Amino acid sequence: QVQLVQSGGGLVQPGGSLRLSCAASGFTFTRAAMSWYRQAPGKERELVAGISSTTGRTNYVDSVKGRFTISRDNFKNTVYLQMNSLKPEDTAVYYCNAKNYATALDAWGQGTLVTVSS
Predict the structure, then answer these.
(1) CA distance 46 to 44
(2) What per-residue string of b and e applies to 90-114 under the rule 16 or more CB within 10 Å gives b?
């Protein structure tokens, strides 16, 4: 059974940091591209950051470049999102995603709320 279990998140003041984790099971983690998405109230879900399955190449939406870092631990089957210098506009529900087009894998975590507010 494919599972993505997220942890982390919560309330943080502007300028603060948080780390999100996403533990994967039920599929071959090393062959999946992993991503973090977010959805703010009243807005569409957007891709925040992604990391490839093989080379570890990363990509980020412009609004988080230089502040967020996505990483993966292939021994722990876990992907992380380190978020620094958080801004109120980063407030959203964050979701991790696993994709493997060869196997039609497209799985989502349960979502975790990040609130940036003073």
Answers:
(1) 6
(2) bbbbbbbbbbbeeeebebebebbeb
pLDDT tens sequence across 46-92: 999 999 998 889 999 999 999 999 999 999 999 999 999 999 999 99
Length of the chain (residues): 118
> Tokens representing 97?
């995603």
Which residue has tokens 């603060």?
Answer: 16
Owner of token pair 């999100």: 20
SS3 string, 8-61, reads CCEEECCCCCEEEEEEEECCCHHHCEEEEEEECCCCCCEEEEEECCCCCCEEEC
Q: Looking at the predicted structure, is the pLDDT value of residue 98 above 90? A: yes
Taking the CA of residue 50 as centre, how many other CA atoms within 13 Å lie in the half-sphere pointing to its CB? 13
Mean pLDDT of 105-115: 97
